[in-house]
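Re: the pair you flagged

First of the two:
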Amino acid sequence: MVNVDTVYQRVLALANKEQRGYITPQEFNLFANQAQMDIFEQYFYDINQFGRVPGNDTSYSDMLNYLEEKISIFESNANSTIYPEDMYKIGSVQYANSDGEVSMCEQVNVKDISTINRTPLLKPTQNRPVYTLGSLGITIYPDYLTNVIINYIRKPNNANWTYIVVGEKPIVHNSPSAGYRDFELHPSEETKLVIKILQLAGITLKDPALYQAAGAEDNKNIQQEKQ
């Protein structure tokens, strides 16, 4: 995890260094969660990019392992055919019979399921189940199967910098009962979070220099990661 108070203090220090304006706690929380989601979603684009690199380049293999380590934090599962509210990306679907034996379910296209069900050799069975994706959940075949497990990648929980006001200054109030929550991203993402939040702050403060400086730093980090 990344400490939300540390990121907040760094963002304030950098934004106020040249009297650029003040970022309120409410603005920070909005920017923080947009930045966290941007970084999280980039993991999947990067995995797709590195996965297409031909050959067995060790540096790319290491990068893929590192990305998978970062994503593993968000692996979850649900005993349901309805998508969990916090689901970002479905992974696999399993069926567990009454004896505890688990079968992997194969995904098929909705347009093909009628043909599959009518073809004796392809028709799904308890030992060879299939599923289709819908807007709200999956449909399992055979349809009498009930003990279905969705393995998925969940979205990060929103970070929240809670505070109390002492005099005129907001002070961090890091009690879980008050809703305080750190970022869920890998600790290595702290600097990237600061940069992305500053980019968003630059737009709000109408400060092109702040936005451009943060953007240039972000691009530099991306290039370094891909070398």
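Second of the two:
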Amino acid sequence: MATLGLIPAKAGSTRLPRKNLLPVGGRSLVEWAVRAARESGLCDRVFVSTEDAAVRAEAERLGLDTPFLRPPELARDPAGVVEVALHALDEWGRRGEPFDTLIILLPTCPFRTAEDIRAAMDIYRRSGTGFLMSVSRPAQSPLTAQVLCDGLLSPLHPEWLFRTGAKAGADLPVMVNANGAVTILDVARFRRVREYYVYPLAAYEMPRERSVDIDTEEDLRYARFLARTRFGLDEDPGDPD
């Protein structure tokens, strides 16, 4: 069973330009993902999918083969990871390297570890679902969310309004969000459905500190703060004090 470790890393980003090349803890976000993929020992090939020459150069600096770029239209909205993954699978298939299993590692989740990938794969194999996503629990339950309209509040989930917090009972559901750190797919089924939110969908739960997903300047500052204070890594050039 051949496994492709896919790292989608386009150059463009609306809120944080060229974020996949930005440093956290002395490594680019691409390097964080490549290291985790390699150290997991699960990937027969690790590949960075990009349309950008600088991202390609970073992948090659890390010793990866990048024989093709993705088409420019797959680096712009509304194209998403599904289309990028199918393109990569097709291109490697044309080069005589078909894959049975796909592991998608978003570079914006730098603190996912090789052990996270291995643990997720163990759950994936035991679940038999063919689809797995890593998840983390939000700081606040979305069951308590309020809808603000014209200066007035209304509960998003009124049925749970008085059954959360200190009044929470055993029936309170565990709420999680996909964090983008690890997604594992059965390639044959993925090709058929062309989607990865397919249920039943297995889950690998990660702590919030390893689930940071960098999409804004604020996210980047927080990740660099964690890299220094939680993970003991050197400061990046230009880090705020």
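The mean pLDDT is 92.

-B.
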